[in-house]
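I would like you to sit down with the record closing this message with an eye to the fold:
=====
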Amino acid sequence: MKLRAAKGRLKVEHSILEGLREVLERLLEANPQIRSIIPGVIRPVRDARGTVRIRLTVPTKNGWKAIALAGGARQELFISTALPREELERAVARALEER
C-alpha cells in the first residue's frame, strides 16, 4: 500500500477521525521539530464522546505513540520527533485549543 503525504509530514494510509486531520495539520505547521505523524488503526470505544482529544501514551524508537479520541472511536497516532514529552504535550494542547 502506497503512502500518501499531506503537506509532506502527515502520512495518510486510511481514514482519520472526524476533526483530527485539522488538529494534526496545525500541530505540524506550528512545530517543525515533528518529522511526521502516522495515523494508525481506528477502533470503536465508549468513552470517546465529544470533541477531539489527544493523549500521549508511550515513547517509541523515534518519538511518541498517542491516542486520539473522538466521535465514539479511538485512533493510534505515531509521532516522529525528538521533542520531550512535556513540550509535545504543550504543542498538542495548543493545536487542540485553536479549533
